[in-house]
Each structure stands twice: as structure tokens, then as C-alpha cells.
Design a protein that fits this description.
Blueprint: H1 3-13, H2 17-26, H3 30-36, H4 50-64, H5 69-82, H6 86-98, H7 102-115, H8 121-132, H9 136-143, H10 153-185, E1 209-212, E2 225-228, E3 236-237, E4 243-246, E5 250-254, H11 261-286, E6 294-298, H12 301-308, H13 310-315, E7 318-321, E8 324-327, H14 335-353, H15 359-363, H16 366-380, H17 388-399, H18 420-456, H19 464-473, H20 477-490
Parallel strand pairs: 5-6, 6-8
Antiparallel strand pairs: 1-2, 3-4, 4-5, 7-8
Helix pairs in contact: 2-3, 2-4, 3-5, 4-5, 4-6, 5-6, 6-7, 7-8, 8-9, 8-10, 9-10, 11-14, 14-16, 16-18, 18-19, 18-20
């Protein structure tokens, strides 16, 4: 048989994506099914087969809801990528709620309400979710969209009455808060603009630690309870043998490594505390933080090496990819581990800002993406630049004109260079100088412009960075290279 004929025979024998999904679903091989369709967008599957693939993934989501909500959420999310059917959106929302990914659940329910306005379950579940989050105005708006003849109508009417009552109470509370505010300020008349609705400044449900902010007329500091989210009392074990604990911002996974109950509780409590710190630090520095939940996987160095290779385990403290933060050598939570979590959470926030998934890596120059994370890691550690020995090494290379140029690191990650520590530092100093020139808001505008521009042009290249640099900073990458060296000499 000729090679051409053999190739044609093999091609004909290969199962289609729909056939493969159906076969794996029939065997209830949910892990294999997820791995087979965990990467790429809908275009990786022929259009006429996407509904079948989505259906198989949805079956897996439904089957695992009770026993492994984390995997169910992953399957549900992939199901909606291939076909935003009502069952896929339902299961994605239910699984997201079970893992305390409330933002993801709300997004799925809103998408279902938009696509299936006659399905009363979407506005009903959305109303329930918003009531739990003390957003009575949002709950009223959702519950009013349950069709009057839908089977959910009776339950919706009861909840609607409750939501309207809560809305009235909130209105009364706002009036009282406004009265107290005017009294404290010595005002003689109502402010021109009413304070924002309580629902717009609510804290997440299920929080345990409270602190009170000061009164400020109509602003973000208006009388409210600022709460730090907490997690459930005990983690569970997933199908891969990892312990899982979740809240609305993070899903934390790690191998137990012989920890007893108290040791697990202490470890998880420390992780949650550090992640909350990373969230509030990021929001304070950038003026925003990630809106969607992020998976955080903690490894020992040996586990990280098995997963990503021994070389990376030796040079990389952590990585962010596919909506997951993965931390190396996290058996003990040292100061360096905390800084790494902050670094990777910055990446997660930037990815969210660029459109989610790995759009930061796909659209931004790598020196920009790594530079902002490394620079803010320095800030978190109380530094404004590289340590003295690293700075001296950079100065020596700069004098020889041998420092890594930024243009080289448009597509080459610092971790992949011959001197990763120096490459990261060059990127961070460049970002520092951009912030020093124009401030953080201009930097974020610059980054968003690159994200949007490259995404719209199907990411054919990252050349838009040159234009964006000229527009926002009046310089080229080569001129920024010179500024990096000059700043090292002057500081």
C-alpha cells in the first residue's frame, strides 16, 4: 500500500470530534473528555459538530455536579464555548455556584436570560443569586423577567415580593444614611446627587470579617461595610487527589502531603489571607482587580517539576496560564511565595483586562506583561528596583551594550532567556520608567490599546506596540532601552 493511500485510510478511520466526544461521554470518561476539548476556541471543531461536543461536555458537567463540582464547572465552561445551549449554560451556572464562583454563575445566567428569554429558570436563578448577594434592585429586575405562564412563575412571585420589600428597606436606609451624612457635614440641603444604591457597594455574601469605612458624600467610601471574603470551614478532595477550597475570587488546590486536619486548616487559612492581600494590593495599585474567579494550584518543587519540567522548576517561582495560577515550592508559605502569588495574580488581572483566558500572552509584548508583574512584585516587597547586586550586573551589561533589548523580549519570555533574572529586571525597570513618566492610568490605557488592537487583527503580530509607544510616550522601544540604562545609572 502506498504512503498516500495509507494516509488517506488512516484519515478516514480517525474519529471526528463529535464521535470522540460521544464515545468518551458514553464511557463516562469525564477527565479524558475534558482533556480532549480543554484547549482552543469553537473554531477547533467543525461548526456542524459543535452542538454534539457541547452536549457531551454538558452530560459530564451534570454527572459530576454532586461529587466533583470543580471538574463539573470546567466541563460546563467548555460546553458553553462550543454551544451556548440552555442545558450547557444551566450546568455551568450551577457548578459555578457550587464552587463559589458567583461572578461566573451570574455571567452564565445572564447569558441564558439573553439567549432564552422564554425560559423562566434563568431569571429565577439569577434573582435568587442576586438576593443572596443583597442586590435587591438587581433581583427585582431579574425576577420581573420570569414569563407569567412559566412553571417558575409562582416561586418567582414569592421571591419578587421579598425582593421588593428589601428594596424598600434599602431605600429607607439610603435616606437615613443621607440624613446622617448631611448632619455630620453640617449641610443645610440635600446633595445634588443622591448616594449610590446600597446594592452597588455591597460586600460579598458569607463574609466574616467587617470593618467600617468613613462617610463620604455620594462616593465610593459612602457608609458601608467593607468585608474580606472567607471560605468554607473545610476543603474536600477532587478526583485527582488534590484538596480543593473555594470562594468567589479563588479556587485553591493542593496535594495534602501528610498534613493533618489542623495543619490543613492553618495552611489554607494562610493561603486565603495571602490571596486576599494580593487582591487588595492589586486593586490599590491598578485601580482594578480581576473580576472573574481564578484557579490557584500550589505545588512542592518536585510536583512542579513533574508537571512542567525540571528546568522550569529550577528557574520559575510560578506561572499563570489557562486561567490558573500555579505556584512552585509552596509547601511553606515564605515571603518569597507571597510575592510570587502577587506577581501571578497581577498576570491574572491583566489577562482578565485583555479579554480573559491567555489573551495577555497572546496580545501583549512579553516584556510588558512580565514587566508590570515584576515591578509590582518589587513594590509589594517595599522596593523600587532590583537589588544592589542585580543592579550592578545590569549596569555592567549596559556599559557593554549587552543588556537584553526590549524588542528581543516582544516574543521571547524572560524565563526563556539565558539570564532570566536580568531579563525580568530589564522589563520591570522599563515599566517603572513608563509609570514614572505618565502614571499608572496611562500605562493601563497603553496596554488595553495593544490588547484590543492585536485581538481585532487576529494577533498576526505585536507591531502595534511601536505605534502605542509613540502615541502614549513619544518614544520607540530602542529609546526606552536607553532610558532603562540611564535610570539604572541615576538611581
Amino acid at each position: 500500500m502506498s504512503p498516500l493511500v495509507l494516509a488517506l485510510v488512516l484519515a478516514a478511520a480517525a474519529p471526528s470530534p463529535a464521535q470522540k466526544a460521544k464515545e468518551l461521554s458514553g464511557r463516562k470518561a469525564w477527565d479524558e473528555l475534558y482533556l480532549a476539548f480543554s484547549a482552543g476556541d469553537a473554531n477547533t471543531v467543525p461548526k456542524e459538530q459543535r452542538a454534539a461536543v457541547s452536549s457531551a461536555l454538558t452530560q459530564g458537567c451534570q454527572a459530576l455536579l454532586a461529587e466533583d463540582a470543580v471538574m463539573a464547572a470546567a466541563l460546563g465552561e467548555r460546553a458553553t464555548v462550543f454551544d451556548e445551549s440552555a442545558p450547557a449554560l444551566h450546568c455551568s451556572a450551577y457548578a459555578a455556584r457550587r464552587t463559589e464562583q458567583r461572578a461566573a454563575a451570574e455571567a452564565a445566567l445572564r447569558k441564558g436570560l439573553e439567549r432564552f428569554p422564554k425560559d423562566g429558570s434563568f431569571p429565577l436563578e439569577l434573582g435568587k443569586l442576586l438576593l443572596e448577594e443583597q442586590d435587591s434592585a438587581g433581583a427585582v429586575a431579574a425576577l420581573e423577567r420570569v414569563p407569567p405562564r412559566a412553571k417558575e412563575a409562582a416561586e418567582a412571585r414569592k421571591l419578587l415580593q421579598q425582593a421588593r420589600q428589601s428594596k424598600q428597606e434599602e431605600s429607607a436606609a439610603r435616606t437615613e444614611a443621607s440624613r446622617i451624612e448631611r448632619q455630620l457635614a453640617g449641610a443645610t440641603r440635600l446633595p445634588a446627587q443622591a448616594p449610590p444604591p446600597i446594592s452597588s457597594i455591597r460586600a460579598p455574601p458569607g463574609d466574616a470579617e467587617d470593618s467600617v469605612a468613613s462617610l463620604t458624600a455620594g462616593g465610593r467610601g459612602s457608609a458601608r461595610m467593607v468585608k474580606v471574603p472567607t471560605v468554607g470551614s473545610e476543603s474536600r478532595v477532587d478526583a485527582a487527589g488534590m484538596r480543593v477550597r473555594a470562594n468567589r475570587r479563588f479556587v485553591i488546590k493542593y496535594y495534602n502531603n501528610d498534613r493533618d486536619f489542623q495543619q490543613r486548616a492553618d495552611y489554607e487559612g494562610q493561603v486565603v489571607e495571602i490571596l486576599d492581600e494580593a487582591y487588595f494590593f492589586t486593586r490599590g495599585q491598578l485601580g482594578q482587580a480581576r473580576e472573574t474567579p481564578v484557579l490557584v494550584v500550589l505545588y512542592s518543587m518536585a510536583e512542579f517539576g513533574q508537571a512542567f519540567g525540571e528546568r522550569l522548576a529550577r528557574v520559575v517561582a510560578g506561572r499563570y496560564a489557562s486561567s490558573a495560577i500555579r505556584i512552585n515550592d509552596a509547601i511553606k508559605l515564605t515571603k518569597e511565595t507571597k510575592a510570587t502569588l502577587v506577581h501571578e495574580y497581577i498576570h491574572a488581572t491583566v489577562a482578565d483586562m485583555c479579554g480573559g483566558e491567555d489573551m495577555d500572552m497572546a496580545t501583549l509584548p512579553l516584556w510588558v506583561n512580565e514587566g508590570i508583574a515584576k515591578y509590582l512584585e518589587w513594590v509589594y516587597l517595599g522596593r523600587d528596583g532590583p537589588d544592589p547586586s542585580l543592579k550592578q550586573a545590569m549596569l555592567s551589561l549596559g556599559a557593554q551594550k549587552a543588556l537584553f533589548p526590549l524588542r528581543f523580549m516582544v516574543d521571547t519570555a524572560p524565563a526563556r532567556t539565558s539570564e532570566p533574572e536580568i531579563a525580568y529586571a530589564v522589563s520591570a525597570v522599563a515599566i517603572r520608567e513608563m509609570i514614572r513618566r505618565e502614571g499608572i492610568h496611562r500605562l493601563l490605557t497603553f496596554m488595553k490599546e495593544i490588547c484590543v488592537g492585536n485581538h481585532e487583527h487576529k494577533m498576526e503580530s505585536r507591531k502595534s506596540v511601536d505605534q502605542a509607544l509613540r502615541t502614549h510616550y513619544g518614544m520607540t522601544m530602542e529609546e526606552l532601552d536607553d532610558e532603562v540604562v540611564a535610570s539604572l545609572k541615576s538611581r
